[in-house]
Amino acid sequence: MASPLSADKLVRALKDEGVKIVEYESWRTHNRNGAGAWGPVHGVMIHHTVTSGTSGSVDLCYKGRSDLPGPLCHGVIAKDGTVYLVGNGRANHAGSGDGDVLQAVIDERALPADKSADTDGNARFYGFECVNLGDNKDPWPAAQVEAIVRASAAICRAHGWGKSGDTSVIGHVEWQPGKVDPRGPGISMGDIRKRVSERLKNAADWSPGGSAPPTEEDDVPKRTLYGTTGDYTQTVEPGSWTTVRFDRKHDGKEWQTKDAEPSIAFGACFYSTTVAVRATGLSRGQELQIRVAHYAEKKGGGWERSGGMPINSPVHDGGDAHFTYAWNGHLSGSRRLRVELAHYGDEPITVTYLRAETLYWGT
Question: Over the chain, what is the mean pLDDT?
Answer without folding.
Answer: 89
